[in-house]
Amino acid sequence: MTKARKAILEALKASVQPVTAMMLAKEPSLSYDQATVYRNLHYLEELGMAQSFILHCTEHGTERYYSYRGADCGIHHHWFHCEKCHRFIDLGSCGYDEQMHAWEKKWDFTITDHTFFLTGICSACKA
Amino acid sequence: MTKARKAILEALKASVQPVTAMMLAKEPSLSYDQATVYRNLHYLEELGMAQSFILHCTEHGTERYYSYRGADCGIHHHWFHCEKCHRFIDLGSCGYDEQMHAWEKKWDFTITDHTFFLTGICSACKA
DNA sequence: GGAAAATTTGCGAATGACTTGCAAATTTTT
DNA sequence: AAAAATTTGCAAGTCATTCGCAAATTTTCC
Ligand SMILES: [Mn+2]
Ligand SMILES: [Mn+2]
Ligand SMILES: [Zn+2]
Ligand SMILES: [Zn+2]
Q1: Which domains does chain A have, with CATH numbers?
Q2: Contact, A20 CB vs strand D, < 7 Å
Q3: What is the distance in A from the centroid of ligand 1 to the CA of B81?
Q4: How many Å apart are CA B43 and CA A25, to the nearest integer?
Q5: pLDDT mean across residues, chain B
Q6: Nearest-10 Cα torsion for A34, A40, A45, A47
Q7: Confidence at A33, pLDDT banded by 50, 70, 90
Q8: Looking at residue B72, what is its pLDDT?
């Protein structure tokens, strides 16, 4: 595992919030080329150490957000995103296995992935 | 309501599957400028006559898909997308109001939107 | 350990969906 | 039907992400 790879993985692990490739690329403590960041995030996701989703927000446009998933290819999470302060709230581990199995049975398709997230205004920003 | 607007709305209504702005712009029977298509899709969504979601597929990249939502601002739907034949399967109207209300209560945030879709291989493509 | 092979990196240029400025055309208002 | 308001087409711009390629790093093999 290369130095860049390890550093990017550590940054992901350290972050409480999902982060974009750009955020990592601009992080002064990392300072790897954006192409390197993008390539390594792909790699880490393929490996199962990271998960991502694409989110569009008026202020920041359309970007892919990454979060850590552990060496044990840990739990798949879902998030709420505040459109005012742009923070994410972890909704906890995914609880849709049952529903998705039911759909697979009903339609006879095979689900390889699912995307779910919420957007709105967080408690702090309402006040 | 302008001619372009009406034509784009009709095209949306006529389509069984969610469509991208590009698909509509390239449709020979429409032949409106892409900027016009994009602008009108925004308009229709704001009006509540259309709904959209961003989906990434390896073959076609990242694009926003639109579907019709009725004059009565009809029901919000969710979809399964086949990564082989690129067809969508309508999973029916959204059944997450209850769960989302529970989350709103738990976290004290206000949900303004939610995104949910599945990707995988459809029945026909498995065979 | 050290040379050769395989992989990764940085840089700069390209891609592609989507947006925007502006003048002309259409639609709405009066 | 003229004036005011909105929308359209075109061309150029934006921005996240990707790609080609030569140099640098990491891994493999002896
Ligand atoms: Mn945001
Ligand atoms: Mn597809
Ligand atoms: Zn907030
Ligand atoms: Zn299929």
Answers
A1: 3-126 (3.30.1490.190)
A2: yes
A3: 25
A4: 35
A5: 96
A6: 180
A7: very high
A8: 82
Residue B57 DSSP SS3? strand
A19 alpha carbon to ligand 4 midpoint, in Å?
Answer: 32
Distance CA A96, CA A60 (A): 29
Count other Cβ atoms within 10 Å, centred on residue B33: 10
Question: Which residue's C-alpha is at the least distance from the C1' of D16?
Answer: A63
With 0-12 CB in 10 A as exposed, 13-18 as middle and 19+ as buried, what is B85? exposed
What value does the mean pLDDT take over residues B71-96?
92
Q: For chain B, what's the residue count? A: 127
The predicted structure's pLDDT at residue A93: 87
- Asked if B82 contacts B89 with a C-beta cutoff of 8 angstroms, the reply is yes
- Between residues B120 and B72, which one has the greater pLDDT? B120
Contact assessment for residue A121 and residue A84, using Cβ atoms and an 8 Å cutoff = yes
**Hey, what are B105's tokens?**
């209560």
